[in-house]
Amino acid sequence: MKQTPAACRSVLIVAGEPSADRYGARLVRRLNDCCDREELRFFGTGGDGMLGAGVEVLCHIRELASIGPREALRHLLRYYRTYNLLIRTCRERRTSVAVLLDFPDFNLRLAKRLKRLGLKVIYYISPQLWAWRRGRIRTVKKYVDRMLVILPFEEEYYRVRGVNVEFVGHPLLEDFPVQPDRNRFFTEHDLDPDLKTIALLPGSRRREVEYILPTMLEAGCRILRRMPAQFLVSVAPAIEAGQLHRIVREVVGRDSAGTRVRIIREDSRRILANADFGFVKSGTSTLEAALVGTPFLITYKISAPSWFLGTILVRTRHKGLVNLIASEEIVPEYLQSAATPEALARAALEVLETPEKAVAMKERLAGIRNMLGSRRATETAAARVAEYLGGTEC
What we know:
Blueprint: E1 9-14, H1 18-34, E2 40-46, H2 48-52, E3 56-60, H3 69-73, H4 76-93, E4 97-101, H5 104-116, E5 120-124, H6 137-143, E6 146-149, H7 152-159, E7 165-167, H8 182-188, E8 196-201, H9 206-224, E9 229-234, H10 241-251, H11 256-259, E10 261-264, H12 268-273, E11 277-281, H13 284-292, E12 296-300, H14 304-313, H15 321-326, E13 333-335, H16 341-352, H17 355-371, H18 377-389
Parallel strand pairs: 1-2, 1-4, 2-3, 4-5, 5-6, 6-7, 8-9, 8-11, 9-10, 11-12, 12-13
């Protein structure tokens, strides 16, 4: 195992999915800008973003992705080995500070062990305790030194429960606005400017895509029976395009409908910004869609056992992040058994065929930005982490 020089401060940073990898990379870059780059050495788990920021990634997020308890069981051995590797490396490098991003089933267990080793634990991007498994608040209170939250309502939730918490703003706001560049975008991807364009965002995990994309494509086929359209399937960074091509062939085939489907490895926000409507997998991507402002619907499907367990544990009225922030349904949700091709197609056609409904949804989506505040999340989070590093100011 490579040893960290004594003059360097070793920082553990742990992300388990693409958006956390992106936010973690920004945080690392900001912290490195605050001090001599030779003084900090980051290691942990992450993806290509954190690799590019100079983090020593001991396990890539591709090896950690799962969707739900049943699927996660298959990866238990990999999780266990990664967990032990991180603990062992913290000991060898005498690490004193850990930054944990989301990934709660793994990170909350890790926090407990890290505190026993004497590390200061900062949690950036909160576990959604307000939605499910609320008993985990006891673990947070005992083993997390600082909770940095990115949704405004989370600050009050944690504060009244005795957690040292701060709302730092949402890092998504640092990427916006994304301006439509329809002519250029359509030319780059050889698209027909006269067709209604529908973006399909089926998720960033392989198993998610297997459950969700077929339903999106079947809904697309039903839309084509009513109007000419084209469909843009967004390829997430951790997804292989070959998997999407296979699903498209299986569901749509190679006939005229198949020629209307394009698989694009492009920033999903740019795809949405140049689309007329979106089918968006529930999660962070729904907030991205809201900030872009394109009308969309929220959908999600997983295995039946995982969904059944989730319905027992999740206690929020709305499941979509956008609707949770707004405290009302401003975007329709079609989840599990309700996520049928007929339902998705009907919701899309209602907006595509009625311009005033598209305008009304855009106006309601515009209010989401104001609810997220004006703080720059990366700068604020880096300043709080720096307080625990000693001698570093951001």
